[in-house]
Amino acid sequence: MLPARFLRSCTRFPSATVTSRYSGSQNMEKPVETSIRAKLSQNLEPCHLEVHNESYMHAVPAESETHFKVVVVSDAFRGKSLIQRHRLVNDLLKDELAGPVHALSIQAKTPQQWEENPTINESPGCMGGSKHDPQMGKKLSSQV
Question: What is the b/e burial string over 90-101, where b = at least 16 CB atoms within 10 angstroms of the residue's CB?
């Protein structure tokens, strides 16, 4: 729980905005995405939070939960360097990173930084080794 002094400066923003981008059925359970959202919300009390499942951009089976981008705006990042912010997020999501999550892109900003520049960086295209695996199509179709 963050001290009240942090919460006051976040009140300029609506309560944490949570969005997700998912290529599969919207009615499917998304346990990894749900866990990421819950941990970041509970521990960082963000003013703005976006959780994007970007697995569809990679050579993984349909509806996978392996590649994510998070955009987190929180006073918890005040006074912390970028590496400290990323370590904090990685620490909170250590179980997901040890298991199903293969890649995590993090944008961690203070409310002031977000107010000055509320843009989200585009994710690069997949550069993974499986992209060049001539058997990948066969592997993916056998998992469906």
Answer: eebbeebbeeeb
